[in-house]
Amino acid sequence: EVQLVESGGDSVQPGGSLRLSCAASGFTFRSYWMSWVRQAPGKGLEWVARIKEDGSEKYYLDSVEGRFTISKDNAKNILYLYMNNLRGEDTALYYCARGGSWFIDWGQGAQVTVS
Amino acid sequence: ETVLMQSPGTLSLSPGERATLSCRASQNVRGGYLAWYQQKPGQPPRLLFYNTFSRATDTPDRFSGSGSGTDFTLTITRLEPEDFAVYYCQQYGGLPWTFGQGTKVDIK
């Protein structure tokens, strides 16, 4: 069974930083693109970032480019999202997802609140 | 950026009825690279279809995906109680990947 478990969500002040983690199990992590997708309270879904199987390619939403960094540790089966210079509009539930184009499996999400 | 407009915003139907959800793109979705997701309150989204009509694991047969170019449709032939939820389309034909704003299917 595929499991994706996010952690690291918190409340921070504008300009602050956070690191989200996503522990993956039940599939061959090193063989998959992985992504982060967020959902602001009561709103729709927004793709944030994706990373290639081996970490050699990374793509970001324009509004987070230069502030967020996606990475994956294939030895530990963990996906990360480093978030710097956080803004109010970054407040959302952040989902880790398996896949780089369509999203096959999703975690339960980590709440990030910036205020 | 490809903007996806979903209609209607809310669809009020009874169990057993047919649901037709529309997703219209602001430009051609390259390769038909469009997915559909179902989301219930307090849960993450669940993949239903990718590449327009390729069924994800466990997607029931009463669901179907169709379309091309800029117009795509998710059809549920006979609504079951567990189908009442919010549905999102998503394109991955061009960066950034984008989602529609969602269609809520609720019980009439």
Please, could you describe this protein's structure?
The complex is a heterodimer of chains A (115) and B (108). Chain A has no helices and eleven strands. Chain A is mainly β and 115 residues long. Chain B contains no helices and eleven strands. In chain B, strands 2, 4, 5, 6, 9, 10 and 11 form a seven-stranded mixed beta sheet that branches. Chain B has a four-stranded antiparallel beta sheet with strand order 1-3-8-7, with no helix packed on it. In chain B, a hairpin with a 6-residue loop joins strand 9 (86-91) and strand 10. Chain B starts with a strand and ends with a strand. Classes of the chains: A mainly beta (115), B mainly beta (108). The interface between A and B is medium-sized, with 18 and 21 residues.
What's this entry about, in short?
With 115 residues, chain A is mostly beta strands. Chain A is 0% helix and 50% strand.
- 3D shape of chain A: globular
Main β sheet profile of chain B: 7 strands, mixed
Number of strands of chain A: 11
Our count of helices of chain B gives: 0
Please, what is the average pLDDT of chain B?
97
Unreliable sequence segments of chain B: none
Assembly type of the shown chains? Answer: heterodimer
From the N-terminal CA to the C-terminal CA of chain B, the straight-line distance is 35 Å
Overall 3D form of chain B: globular
Q: Please give the count of helices of chain A.
A: 0
**Mean pLDDT of chain A, nearest integer?**
98
Instruction: Give the ordered list of helices and strands of chain B.
Output: EEEEEEEEEEE
Share in β-strands of chain B: over 45%
Radius of gyration of chain A: 13 Å
